[in-house]
Amino acid sequence: MIPDTTLFQKREWLAFVALAALLLLVIPGVLDVFRLNLVGKYLTYAFVGLGLVLCWGAGGILSLGQGIFFGLGGYCMAMFLKLEASTPQATAIQSTPGIPDFMDWNQVTALPFWWQPFNSFAFTLFAVVAVPAFFAFIIGAAMFKRRVGGVYFAIITQAIAAILTILIIGQQGYTGGVNGITDLRTLLGWDIRTDSAKFVLYFVNAGLLLACLVFAQFVRVSKFGRLLVAMRDREDRVRFSGYDVADFKIFVFCLAAMFSAIGGAMFTLQVGFMSPSFVGIVPSIEMVIFCAVGGRLSLFGAVYGALLVNAAKTSFSESFPELWLFAMGGLFIAVVMAFPLGLAGLFRDYVEPAATRLLDRLFSRSRPASLAGGN
Questions:
Q1: 291 close to 302: Cβ distance less than 8 angstroms
Q2: Residue 131: inside a domain
Q3: Distance CA 143, CA 147 (A)
Q4: Is the dihedral of CA 316, 320, 323, 325 positive or negative?
Q5: Which residues, in sequence order, are CB contacts of 91 under 8 Å at separation 6+?
Q6: DSSP E strand boundaries for the chain
Q7: Where are the bilayer-spanning segments (predicted)?
Q8: Fewest Cβ atoms closer than 10 Å to its Cβ: which of 78, 146, 203, 247?
Q9: How many structural domains is the chain composed of?
């Protein structure tokens, strides 16, 4: 029997069209620019969710350090934008014109060599995905080749996220420290702080997200995707069949890192800064919660989970900022205990069957008696 490798089933096509309409038509049509930019920020976390669906949902690899790659992608973009804003004319009042302001404040007198390539936008676009993928490859090769997995891998990724946060904060003269890289103004001369720029960036962000969703779905329905599921369920059988399980894990971990990095770069463009507060343990765990709430087995669920949880976070934290972390923890426990497949599982098991029965009932009532079998 030949397995079905259709990219989307009919129901999934409907879900994709509905999501595209929501992101590209409904939300821009009903929200002002400020709220639209806020939704765009939420969507940047959906990139992380897509990667986690592949890495955690399909491959069974729980990473609690996706903030590493989100932050690396964001910092790569921020370095380019900061250099563009730090021309000798714009920084003439500094002791050393032509370098970022935080470097001048920390008595750095020359642009570090590893900052210099980020004067090129083409190199920056390459680095946004290549640098996180390289770090993910190093981490994955070191762990998976030694068959480190499960809870041990999750804890190690947490530790690496904490280490990277400490490193960024400690190297204030080169990274901006705890404040991060701020005061980002233009992209190739285009002012990204205007309302029109935020409007355009939202559509770029949404378009990239839909493209990444299609690519992630292609990976899921491919032979590689089926092997990921097989590894998740019975890794020993896949290994005994002659496949190098470690290489498959490394690849999907790097792919998830690249998705996260794209989200981080778009976050920097839309918000206008990047700081270590988006790299550490807490944001990494929050990213896992977005995916878990939406449904770790559903790409569409990951997007909706990121939107809904972040919207709830914004609303709830405005009134009870000190209680939000407790609410987030309770939400994660509730998901794990009550509906482990998230909102997507609830929709599939309860909402969709109920809607189908309702439509069948309405359709049967509306049919003429002759079509229903009457004389």
A1: yes
A2: yes
A3: 6
A4: positive
A5: 97, 98, 99, 101, 104
A6: 186-187, 190-191
A7: 13-34, 46-72, 121-144, 151-170, 199-219, 240-267, 287-311, 323-347
A8: 146
A9: 1
